[in-house]
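Q: Trace token order:
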Amino acid sequence: MGTPETASITSEEREALGAINSRVVIGTVTVESLMPALEDILQKAIPHDFTCLVKFTVGPEGAWFQPIHFGGFEFDFTPLRRFPFDQMAPAEMLATGRPVLIPGHGYERFPEATYIESVGLLSCMLCPLKVFGAPFGFLAIGSRRRNAFSERDLVLAEQVSHHLSLAISNILTYEDIRALKERLERENVYLKEEIRASVDFKELAGASPSLQKTLKAIEKAAGTDSPVLLTGETGTGKDLVAQAIHKLSSRKDTLLIKLNCAALPPSLIESDLFGHEKGAFNGAAARKIGRFEVADQGTIFLDEVDEIPLDLQVKLLHFLDTHELERVGGSRTLRLNVRVIAATNADLEGAVSRREFRADLYKRLKVFPIRVPPLRERREDMPMLAWHFAKKYAARHRKEITRIGTAAMQAITAYPWPGNVRELDHMIERAVILADGPVLTIEELEREGATGAPARLGMKRPILQHRRKKLGITKPRRA
């Protein structure tokens, strides 16, 4: 980037530019705090009533701009949306790469003139900012007086914008390096967590038709990058399905980042997912890299996605549509390549009808829906699963278990397992811990199976429960 002409800059003005450079200490100043750190120096060099640091953006409606910082007073940019961008002063500055001086007359050629004057700005200078060789935005300096700025002021303002451009470039470079370091540190934490988790995909094995249908869906989902919505009761293994999709996909050598959306207070979910800048809110003493950034090039698994607050659902939908996000309190747009897998045990369609979950987000998530069947629909798989858990916990607790007793296996197959695979897992572990010999028994389950109502009526428990529910029979309350 070439340096603007400096022939008419006085020694005092050069001192002001030097002071601006000395204030920009990399590591202590952000793009958002840049102008407040320089405002008093700029005021002495060019007396004014208003400043605004502005960034160019590109959205669905095309090129636009958004304020990063106001100095003096704030005004609403929203009404400017009614004017065509390509006819406005920022567009002329963007096209020519030169500053624009509006001394208080000649506003007629810019359609936004009336609104600018209505907020009290009668003179204005717009100076372009170029960062890494590309247009970044502009510095706006305004006054409540007409003819407040001269050509000399414009030359100095252009010099200031040149120094600001260099400062912003340096700040963003430093932030990128620091963000990479923070990301590597968080990746290391997640990698250690993955190693400790030691996923066992044998829990997804089985010959039951319902599980086979799910396994086929997993294979198909793994071959795409579309969002996946996993549905199913608590304890069915939706987390294992998410990991299987990731491990079978082209992203298998990258991270799978997980978040249980119900495990965090609603106020912290946004910061945890998208990160935040230093000072973004009370307690934000340092910048934090969010899980989406850490998951770049990989997969993010949002368990219990129905717990995400409505206002944050908008931001999640925006990311699914654009793959872009901004940290909380930040102005930089980050473009990330992240595959999203969500899971819920709730009735999302019901939540949509009750307006507790956004309909557009629901449609976006369920591009590829997969239902994970409950254990009671996998009765053919129960003996294999039970023996798998028995062997696992026998090794862990140093027990010699050679088989599961016949009565215990019959009880396992007959029991409805409201807690699904997780409940079976926990019950087998408890049985192994209590075991005194090589044959595993589950006394409380066997006793219920042998003496309970299903046994007395000569039918399996699921059939009895179904008929009881159909006939409206309930347990009498104890006095």
Notes: The longest strand covers residues 50-59. Confidence is low (pLDDT under 50) at residues 1-7.
